[in-house]
């Protein structure tokens, strides 16, 4: 199956995307320099042919990163991961935008109560951050790690909280 790669201009710089006909296989969070983004993407996907990313996805990612749109759920192609990694990544996609779970809670959801460290390893190996939202997984005592650094993790969670539906207010007594 052919793999393609391309860059998208978004708030914060240039985002790298790799994709197949099945979905996105690699996403590199924005870096300020176009040449740096191209180099990182080529290093991750040397076999990929240059191409133009899907315009709708590019638009949605840019709108998400600027805070204009909620999280963009999009098809991903996760065949390059192990079976455990793929299970973790699918579980992460079930965490609602703007919410968090601990590594341990994700492990319990997978039926592997003692696999919190392995969940952390799968998060670190996530090839498509944003689309598989590993930024929503936190440590029991704090934010945990993130491949692009904690400032990115905090920024993404803040963006998502802005779009999270709030609870319907209850009528006041006697209203």
Task: Describe it.
By secondary structure, the chain is of the alpha/beta class. It folds into two domains: 4-65; 83-163, Winged helix-like DNA-binding domain superfamily/Winged helix DNA-binding domain (Arc Repressor Mutant, subunit A, Orthogonal Bundle). It is built from six helices and six strands; from the N terminus they run E-E-E-H-E-H-H-E-H-H-E-H. It has helices spanning 34-44, 55-65, 83-92, 103-109, 116-124, 150-163; strands at residues 4-10, 13-20, 23-31, 49-50, 101-102, 137-138. The strands form two sheets. A four-stranded mixed beta sheet has the order 3-2-1-4. A two-stranded parallel ribbon has the order 5-6. Helix 3 packs across helix 5 (116-124) and helix 4 crosses helix 5 (116-124). The N and C termini lie far apart (62 Å). The model is unreliable at 167-175 (pLDDT under 50).
């Amino acid at each position: 199956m052919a793999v393609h790669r391309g860059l998208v201009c978004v708030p914060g710089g240039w985002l790298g995307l790799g994709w197949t006909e099945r979905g996105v296989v690699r996403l590199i969070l924005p870096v300020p320099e176009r040449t740096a983004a191209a180099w990182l993407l080529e290093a991750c996907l040397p076999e990929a042919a240059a191409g133009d990313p899907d315009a709708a996805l590019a638009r949605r990612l840019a709108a998400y990163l600027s805070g204009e749109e909620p999280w963009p759920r999009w098809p991903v192609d996760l065949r390059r991961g192990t079976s455990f990694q793929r299970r973790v990544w699918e579980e992460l996609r079930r965490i609602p935008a703007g919410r968090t779970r601990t590594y341990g809670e994700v492990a319990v959801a997978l039926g592997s109560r003692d696999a919190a460290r392995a969940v952390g390893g799968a998060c670190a190996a996530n090839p498509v951050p944003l689309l598989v939202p590993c930024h929503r997984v936190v440590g029991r005592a704090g934010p945990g790690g993130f491949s692009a650094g904690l400032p990115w993790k905090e920024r993404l969670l803040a963006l998502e909280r802005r779009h999270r539906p709030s609870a319907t207010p209850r009528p006041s007594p006697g209203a």
